[in-house]
Amino acid sequence: MQSHRIRSPEVDRNVPRRAVDPTLRSGAATNVALRGLSRIAAFLAGTTGVLWRERPDACRDCRAEPAGNPSSLVAESAGPDAAAAPEETAALIRHILERYHEAHRREVPELIRLARRVEAAHRDHPDAPLGLAGLLSRVESEMEQHLQKEELGLFPMILEGHADLAPAIAIMRDDHDDHSLRLRQIEALTHDFTPPGNACKTWRALYAGTRKLADDLTAHIDLENHVLFPRFVG
Ligand SMILES: [Fe+2]
Ligand SMILES: [Fe+2]
């Protein structure tokens, strides 16, 4: 699934340190720019490296701007930061909850909203992702059930030191397989998250956000399947 790894624009790290110095004459303009970046990052929350590029192709059909209100956009994510995951089990679980569970819950509803708009506005386009909103809604529903199983069941059992976690972990692994299948369906429907050349900014935002969801969910699953769970099953 990591084949669609996206480039890391490293927006935050590339902001020159002196550019945020309020003593500089350019400070006010820089702060405006930084506030703009914050609003943009809020659209794809959980991503530290989001870059929007100006594009001239407004869409008369989609009308309103995507959340974050960039004039036009292409979004890129710094990608999953599995390497930053802490080693200690309680800290790792906290990281999973904050970095992935919260991000999924924030982002999927917005993607469903964008998908509905794109499907309605571009239903006659040969590449229109008809059915994407339904697929994302299914992801949202299945994922919410799974997240609650972990948050209310498996993770507390791990932290309380339960002896036999194998049955619960087997259920989580099955759920992960279902999530991965759903992501493959979304990849196929969106041509690996590639909008057509004449796609409007809403369509591009939808695919960029959906790609980020796929990256995040894949990293989330990998972290649990290959780092967390093996500590508790033979
Ligand atoms: Fe999880
Ligand atoms: Fe999980």
> For the residues shown, what is the average pLDDT?
76
Which regions contain 5 or more consecutive residues with pLDDT less than 50?
1-58, 66-79
The end-to-end span amounts to 26 Å
The share of residues in extended strands comes to under 5%
Number of helices: 6
Main structural class: mainly alpha
Give the ordered list of helices and strands: HHHHHH
For the report, how would you describe the main beta sheet?
none
How many domains, as an integer? 1
- The strand count comes to 0
Helix content: 55-70%
Query: What small molecules does the structure contain?
Result: fe (ii) ion
Q: Which descriptor suits the 3D outline? A: elongated
Radius of gyration: 19 Å
Can you describe this structure in just a few lines?
The chain is an all-alpha fold and 234 residues long.
